[in-house]
Amino acid sequence: MLLIALMTAVTAQVVTVGAVGGAVGARRDRTLQHDLALESGLLLIEDILAGPSAKHLFHELDRFGTTGLRFAIGDVEIRGTLRDEGAKFHPRWFNRPDQEPLLSRVLTRLGSRSGLAPAQVDLKPVATASQSDRTLSYHWFDQLLADVQPGQILRLHEDEDLHPTWSDVVTLWGDGRVDLRRCDAAVLDAALSDLPPGLADAILQMRPADRTINFFRTALERVPAELRQTVSQRVGFDLRRYAIEVDTIIGADRRRWFVVAGHRANRLEVLHRGMVTW
User: Fold this and answer.
1) The pLDDT value given to residue 207
2) How far apart are CA 88 and CA 172, in angstroms?
3) DSSP state for residue 251 in the 8-state scheme
4) pLDDT in tens, 247-260
5) How confident is the model at residue 132, as a pLDDT?
6) Which of 276, 226, 232 is nearest to 255 (CA)?
7) pTM of the full structure
8) Within 10 A of 42 (CB to CB), how many other CB atoms are there?
9) Which listed site, 188, 191, 207, 251, has its alpha carbon 20 to 30 Å from 111?
10) Residue 157 above 60 pLDDT?
11) Which residues contact 173 (CB under 8 A, 6 or more apart)?
12) Rounded Cα distance, 194 and 257, in Å
C-alpha cells in the first residue's frame, strides 16, 4: 500500500509538472504571436505615414490631437492610437542639480493646467556626466512622480482613451524639442519656464489656424535676440515623433503596448517599446 501511495504521488507530480510546462509553453507561443502582431502593426503604421492616407491622419492629429487605427491580419486584430510625442514637455532642459526645485514646480503646474489628478512630484534622477559637467536624466515616470497610480501614467485599457495621463504631456524620449505644430500653451510654457514669462503665449499667438503652415522662423524673429538660440534649441515644427498605444487581440487574449517612434525618410524608428503590464 505504501508503494502504491508513493507511485500515485509521483504520477500526480509528473502530471502537474507536465501541465505547468504545457501552460508555460502555450503562453510563450502566445507572447511570440503578440510580438509579431505588434511588429506587423508598426509596419502597417509606417506604410500609412509614408502613403497618401497620411494627409488624413495628420489632419486628425491637428484637429483632435489623436487618431485611431485598426487592422485585421487573419485572426489577429490590431488597434492603435497615435498622439504627437513632440507636443509634450521633456525634462532634459532642467537637467542640472540646481534646477531640480524648478523642475518640480514646472511639473506641478503642468499637471494642474492639463487637468491631471494631483500627484506628488518626487524627483529621482540619474547622474549622467562627469563631476566637471554634472547633468541629470530621467528614464521613466517613476523618477518624476511618487505614489501615482499606474492609470495616471499610461492608459491601461482601450476604453480609457479620453482619460488624461502624464504620458500625454510629458515625454522622456527624443531630443527634447517641443513641436509648435500641435503643442498647447501649458506644455510650451513648461519648456520655456526659465525664460521671461509670456514668451510661450506670444509664440503660439502667431500659430495659423492651418497647422500645416510652418511659422517657426516668423515666430523666432519676434523673440528677443538674446533668447533666440535658447528657444530654437527647445522648439521645432512638425518633428514627426509619435506615441503609439497598440492593442493586439488574439482570440480572448488582449495585450496593450506603449511605443514611442520617430518617422523620418519614410522609416519608423522605435525609441521606446514596452508592454503595459500592471
Assistant:
1) 96
2) 9
3) T
4) 999 988 999 999 99
5) 53
6) 276
7) 0.85
8) 20
9) 207
10) yes
11) 85, 241, 260, 271, 272
12) 34
